[in-house]
Amino acid sequence: MKVSFLPLAMILVLTSCGNSEPEITGAPPDMRRLTDGQYVNAITDIFGPQIKAESHADPLVRTDGLFAIGARSARITPSGFDRYYYQARTIAQRVVSPENRTMMFPCEPRDASAADDRCARLYFTKIGRLLYRRPLTAAEVQTPIDAASEAAKVGGDFYRGIAVGIAGMLTTTKFLFIIDSTEPDPDLTGNVRLTSFSKASRLSFLLWNTTPDEPLLAAAETGELHTKEGLKRQVDRMMASPRLDTGVRAFFKDFLEFEQFETLEKDSIIYPAFTIQVAEDAKEQVLRTIIDHLVVRNQDYRALFTTRQTFITGALARIYRVPTRRPADGAWIPFEFSENDPRAGILTQVGFAALSSHPGRSSPTLRGKAIREHILCQRVPDPPGDVDFSLFEDPNSPNKTARERLTAHRTAPACAGCHKITDPIGLALENLDGIGQLRTTENGEFIDASGDLDGTVFTDAAGLGRAVSTNPATTSCVTQRLASYALGRSIGPEDRELLRYLEAGFADDGYRVPELLRRIANSEALFAISVPTTDNATVLSNADGTVQEKVQERQL
Amino acid sequence: MLNQSSKECFKSPLNWIFSIACVMSLTAATPAVSADTITLGFVVRDWFTSVFNSKFLDECPEGLSVANDEIWWRGLSKEERAKATENGLIQSLARQFITPRRGPNGEHVCHDPTSVIDPPMKVVEGKYSYGANLDGDTDGSRTPKTCSHVNFTHPDDGTPGIDNQMYRLLGCIYGWRRGGLPEANAHEGRGTSGLGMILIEVSGVTDPRNSDDVIVTFYRSIDQFALDGSGRPLPYSSYNIDMKDGKPRYNDSLKGAIKDGVLTTARGDVRLPFYGNYNFMHPIIRDMGLRLEIAPDGARANGMITGYYNMDEFLYYNGGMTGHVSGGDNCPSMYVAAHELADGYPDPDTGQCTHLSSAFEIGTYAAFIIHPDEEVKSANR
Predict the structure, then answer these.
(1) Per the CB < 8 Å rule, is B10 touching A309?
(2) Where are the alpha helices (DSSP H) in A34-137?
(3) Does a structural domain hold residue B93?
(4) How many domains does chain B contain in total?
């Protein structure tokens, strides 16, 4: 037996040796606006769990499938700034409230009814480092001190002054944007590299979707992040943290376009069981399944589309028509669909079925499109503007099932091309109605859920899941999206070698997403930067200056 | 992990069609009749005393019965009326707590219905009623188990010998007629409070549409109804059984059979929970039988519970509403009439019958009945 393993082991070693990271040319330094999730996480992590924040920033533009890329071109509108400022004031007031201030302040003012620049300096130096994700310059510390001093004098309250200073810092671009800062690269004359603090931010927002913690900033301060060993130490520490769940969640919410849940509505006459609670639980179920499968149990990414293990709540149990023991409020119950159940994988969960449907009926086309675009990273063209839906939507149509209606609809040549790539996979989910409830018939006709995905034939939803799990595009898609998410930019032809490297590593690691994350986090590609062009510098300057000016106006 | 019977559910497309019932079988049923059977569960949402209302009130040829408030009003002089109502400022709804206290010594006539002698109430004189032939005869003559009574004929299928003295008692009281407030209030209260919720578990089912030998068990739920946005119950919700000392607090069973989707049970004594109009009760319905028409999709089932209802318990319930004007009844008159009409289970000493033949229309929703003392097999890895 041992002999038979030797060749395989040798092949693995050779494969592994041959997969070294290619050199890539990074993008010019840039700035990315915090997403709503990053804003909320950062506030909680900096000020403590007792300080709850909300973020209703200007919507980001999804770019190449990700908000993480759209964040790069995000700006702040006047109304968006108003919301930031209102939120900043609310947060600041909570931070300095009598019940919270004792946990946060490194000193006590000599007189709580007057300004105290010494104590304010200590505070803003400490908190500013966390907010700006780097040490503050003398001028950057002085600005909130001056604001706090002025406000304390006017209001006769030291803490009220501090609140003004905090609110000001929370509305600067230095907090609201993740700004790439560079320094001359000592190893390559004439080149620049990201500062260790910018590296810390990239790591932290990638792995935890939040601001760097104190140990990471300390590692940045000592230059540890510029060394492979130091970087690895920090990555290992962060990968072992429970916060990794948050980071992986954030990626999949972006990857699967889960912001659509915020506007998901169903016809309550047709689907009385679909409530707001069901919508929230459905979204959470997919994410819980992902975290449990990928992070907690460190399973193969491909098996996400075939796994029968998940979690349910009472509200979801009604949709799935399964019994649940009386759970504690908000409790999630581990659940496993039986081997003979038509459901398997996240595509058959209520979340996916409901999200990719119309308010009053299922949609094989939307489901097929979602699988092509979200799971396989294949672009499906938008329908032509003058598309004729009459055949499909005719209530008196003799075509009782979606398959029959779509077949009639596809007779139009303009429609046939796209439907050919969406419908054969979307129809496999027709045993799930518009909210994901099982059904065997539609309008009295037996539903045929057979189809094929790029040549792989199947007969039902579980078969579709197996086909998706074995499709090469499934793993290359998540690799590409995760790389894109990490780098904060679209992946272009120049990144081909990097993708090959990551995909090969992903395969070597048994398609374990945490290992893919670890590989990216330890890569030079994550921190690669090119010399900024003049144009790029101008953009940065304009964006920063515009907002900063508004902040100062508000502070005054 | 699934039990064998559950695994069988998905073995063939035919069974897959019955997946609703199959999934419901995952509930751990108490009386495990056979390894190859499934279990159906239902939660009772609607419970209405069955009354047959003809279009022109033919069943009450002399009109409706006189209520307590009117009798109280008739017994007062003009001056007394003015005094009792603060010159008419206290309207009938607000004076419900005053009017029943018209016994000779201020007794509450609903709590002490023999303290006054009121005119007899009007009772149903019609020929038709819903219900069942509980005593097996068609002439209503006295037997060791029954008192003499007049039988009805079923209005839909003409079945003779229908026993429903509860209807005879209540059918000419406007509050107790179809849509009346006492029933509506009780229905509303059960829906919002989760009290008095009856669970019906049908075990030993070989086919959800046709099974010759099933066990029907009645439990109480400790969970409230799961409702949709319009306040309607959602089928396929899970309801935990009310337990006491490790056993279900309510746990009576009847044998039954399902034929063409209609469940019919044999008769037996069943104790059920009841809540309505702020009264908790635990009536034992004697010789109770259930007929339940299960919808083809299994999501709902409607039917009727028939049997002998304890007269004292009913009078206690009705009296507990303290003569509320919305009931339209009069406790002392009803007390006398109920004793005259009671047709079941004569007292061995006095011969006075103690139960009223009754019929209750019920509406149910498919439910998973959770036995807290047993594993919820499908909900665990």
Answers:
(1) no
(2) 36-47, 67-70, 78-95, 98-104, 117-132
(3) no
(4) 1
Residue B69 reports pLDDT greater than 50: yes
Residue B268, beta-bridge partner list: B288
Cβ-based neighbour number of residue B181 at 10 Å = 18
Q: Pick from B226, B240, B380: which is nearest to A334 by CB?
A: B380
Give Cβ neighbours of residue B282 (< 8 Å, ≥ 6 apart): B271, B272, B273, B274
- Chain B residues touching residue A314 (CB < 8 angstroms): 226, 237-238
Q: How far apart are CA B314 and CA B331, in angstroms?
A: 11
Establish if B78 belongs to a structural domain: no
Interface residues on A facing B, Cβ-Cβ cutoff 8 A: 268, 272-273, 275, 309, 312, 314-315, 317-318, 321-326, 333-336, 338, 340-342, 438, 440
Which B residues, 226 through 265, put their C-beta within 8 Å of a C-beta on chain A?
226, 228-230, 232, 234-238, 240
Q: Which residue of B has its CA nearest to A447?
A: B17
Average pLDDT (A107-115) is 93
pLDDT tens readout for residues B299-345? 999 999 999 999 999 999 998 886 677 788 999 999 999 999 999 99
- Whether residue B280 is contained in a domain is answered as yes
How does residue A420 score in pLDDT terms, banded at 50, 70 and 90? confident
Interior angle at CA A12, CA A8 and CA A14, nearest 5:
115
Of the candidates B17, B232, B378, which has its C-beta nearest A440's C-beta? B17
pLDDT tens-digit map of A526-547 = 999 987 655 444 333 333 333 3
Say which of B20, B230, B238 has its CB closest to residue A324.
B238
Q: What is the pLDDT of residue B9?
A: 34
Tell me phi and psi for residue B205, to 5 degrees. -80, 125
What is chain B's Cα-based Rg?
23
Minimum-distance CB partner of B229 among A268, A322, A336: A268
Closest CA to B121 of B322, B348, B334: B334
Which tens digit of pLDDT belongs to each residue from A491-539?
Answer: 988 999 999 999 999 999 999 999 999 999 999 999 999 876 554 443 3
Asked if A314's CB is within 8 angstroms of B376's CB, the reply is no
Residue A67 near residue A35 (C-beta atoms within 8 A)? yes
Count the alpha carbons within 13 Å of A281 in the hemisphere toward its beta carbon. Answer: 25
Here the tokens at position A287 are: 């994410």
Q: Which positions in chain B touch A268 (Cβ < 8 Å)?
A: 228-230
Contact B379 A333 (CB under 8 A): yes
Chain A CA closest to residue B379:
A335
Domain of residue B221, residue span: 1-66+119-381
